Write the structure tokens for this entry.
Amino acid sequence: MENKLILITNPGSSSRKYALYKGNDEICSLHFEYEGKDVICTLKKADGSKKVLKQDFKELTSTVANINRILTEEGILGGMAKIDAILARVACPGEFFTQDHVVDEAYLKALDKAKKRAPLHVPVVAAEIEHLVKSFKGTPVIAISDSSFHADRPDLMKYYAFDTELADKADVKRFGYHGLSVGAIVQYMKKQDILPQKLIVCHLGSGSSITAVFEGKSLDTTMGYSPLEGLMMATRCGNIDPAAALAIKHYLKFESDEGIEKYLNKEAGLKGVSGQTDDMREILRLRDEGDKRGTFAHAMYVYKVQSLIGQMAASLGGVDAIVFTATIGERSDEIRRTVSQKLNYLGFAIDEKKNVADMPERHTNIGAEGSKPVWVIRTDESEEMIRRAGAILDTNKDGEVSQNELDTAAEKNRVTKKK
């Protein structure tokens, strides 16, 4: 892996993000977005320098076809250098998608069928992968599952409370997501020799989830069939009674299921409760200014995090350490402070000075004296994707990867083992 050039893609509904790595070292990142009617690309190199490049094309769907050109023109790819592999993060419901896959015709067909199961999330990544396969002919494209880390949880944590035979036939279970982030945290803690037996990882960002980790393996997690379940998030409601969702569908006169699904995914959470913003920094500003809805949104978010930490602690039968990670978890000392206020019963208390101090290291224990460790750890999903792909790519020096090689490597890479 040391000399292989790896392109990682992260498509969004209104942007496209890419990162180019040489082995485990990031060379540059490219962020495509609209500026008015134009598409611009912000190129950031490893030395921190940035450059904004206006593009000739008008649609984000054209980004893939122009990546090689941009990297070559900017002197990043030169001579005979070429991208050795492309990794795409895939969050998609279904047992098939709990494993990593070399993208081939069978995978593309499975992904196309999955669009009906997750119409808000899958079409964007499916289109991106299709463009990558067409534009980078001969370069292996590997779909890295965001659910793989959770795949071997006990059935007790995976099934919903209805007929399990029906669940198997319909392929409807609690698959869990943010597995790349939690997997990255676990691998990092192992390397630092700070991984306890019973760990709770709070991935708090625009999407949020909490995971119970036992001996380095996922035991329980808050996200379920889709990333909608669990915590209140930036624009997702989190846990909701299906009857309540149907009542809102009828009240708002949505004609399709997609309408209510879009509402609960895009218009709820912090955005819906505050009525103004999905940005936690703005929520805190509104709270400090005495805005009632902003104050309520903050209080609800903290309550939801606290209550689901309790659920994960119950699954584990106790907890030895807790981790805050992702954008909010890593950057918001105020959310860490307010969430931790009700965690004394689990043995956690934070040191106020450590909590607000600069944290130049990737991991910092902000726990007060006598407290169990309260870690703030920077997650790195790209690092975990490369780790998972490493064994696959290293099995074949010519860059050709078969699904059998992928399955074998996946077993070696697995943090969990099926019981």
About this structure: The chain has 16 helices and 14 strands. The domain at 194-379 is CATH 3.30.420.40 (Nucleotidyltransferase; domain 5).
